[in-house]
Design a protein that fits this description.
With about 300 residues, the chain is of the alpha/beta class. The protein has eleven helices and seven strands. Strand 4, helix 3 (about 95-105) and strand 5 form a beta-alpha-beta unit.
């Protein structure tokens, strides 16, 4: 399965329908409609992305809801726990070194760190900070469309330099490749995206994982974070459903059936050593029986001497 987790949300239904149809033709299976947020959040949080779109979408295409928060002040509370219940994915876009460090080491309830690679950052991506984020289950997102469609050559140059630096800092791990394409012209097929990442220094295996396994991990981890306690404990059946007694009965009967189907120990095949020992014993008993038939043992009885001949 192939993922594109950054498709900008637009209220233009015709434009969005064309983009989703083209993603389906390119071979993508899961896409996320992204809604950007910045500044102080309102008290009543609602998503402009509807749960079901009003137009016809490809049947095999799964559509998720995502929001990306521009993180500039680490001290500002962005109410990430409330956003987690509204959107399927929550991402942050840090603009300063302190914001990036906070997102990598301290922020919870986020799935992606999406960096604007078309601008020149005044800081370097450190391996220790990136490794801490990956260890916490957070992935870094590389978006290729803003650099491809940019009319300024500086944006493309910054994209190549920042992507190369981030891949070197993460050792190629924890990378998710997305498009962030506002039009269908900026979309590329998954194999083309892998080849493009290879130019930046990401090998083909890591590049394939960036549009497949790593992106899948982001979606699954976000779902577990919403439906479980700290992503560890999840209640799948409370035992009150009608199917629960049947499941328990089947679980009890299963060991008995397996025990009946298990062959007896005497019917188990013998090993080579046991068969060889058994043949030796049979040969030994056969030789003894043949010797007894040829030389039968005769027993003679000696009469007791008369009492007169016994010495006194």
């Amino acid at each position: 399965m192939f993922y594109d987790l950054n498709i900008p949300w637009t209220s233009n239904e015709q434009h969005l329908q064309r983009t989703l149809a083209f993603l389906d033709e390119l071979g993508y299976n899961v896409v996320a409609l992204n809604h950007p947020l910045s500044g102080k959040l309102q008290s009543d949080l609602t998503s402009p992305i509807p749960s079901s779109l009003s137009f016809l979408t490809p049947a095999k295409l799964r559509i998720l809801k995502r929001c990306t928060i521009t993180l500039s002040e680490p001290s500002l509370n962005h109410r990430l726990s409330a956003l987690q219940n509204i959107y399927d994915l929550v991402a942050v876009r840090p603009t300063t070194a302190n914001a990036l460090q906070q997102a990598c080491q301290h922020l919870d309830n986020i799935s992606l760190i999406s960096l604007d690679l078309t601008v020149r950052h005044p800081y370097y991506f450190k391996h220790s900070i990136c490794r801490a984020a990956i260890a916490r289950g957070i992935r870094f997102e590389l978006c290729y469309a803003p650099g491809i469609l940019a009319s300024d050559s500086a944006a493309r140059r910054n994209l190549i330099g920042n992507a190369t630096q981030l891949i070197r800092a993460t050792r190629g791990r924890g990378i998710v490749l997305s498009s962030e394409a506002k039009t269908a012209v900026g979309l590329r097929a998954p194999i083309d995206v892998v080849n493009l990442a290879a130019v930046w220094g990401l090998n083909s295996d890591r590049g394939r994982d960036a549009v497949d396994k790593e992106a899948k991990w982001v979606v699954v981890a976000a779902a577990m974070r919403r439906s479980s306690w700290r992503g560890v404990i999840d209640v799948v059946d409370d035992g009150q459903s009608s199917a629960a007694p049947a499941k328990r009965k089947a679980a009890v009967e299963m060991p008995e059936r397996a025990k009946k189907a298990e062959p007896q120990r005497s019917e188990m095949p013998l090993s080579k050593r046991q068969a060889k020992r058994l043949r030796r014993e049979e040969e030994r008993s056969k030789k003894l029986s043949e010797g007894n038939e040829k030389d039968p043992i005769t027993t003679t009885t000696v009469d007791e001497e008369p009492e007169a001949n016994k010495p006194s």
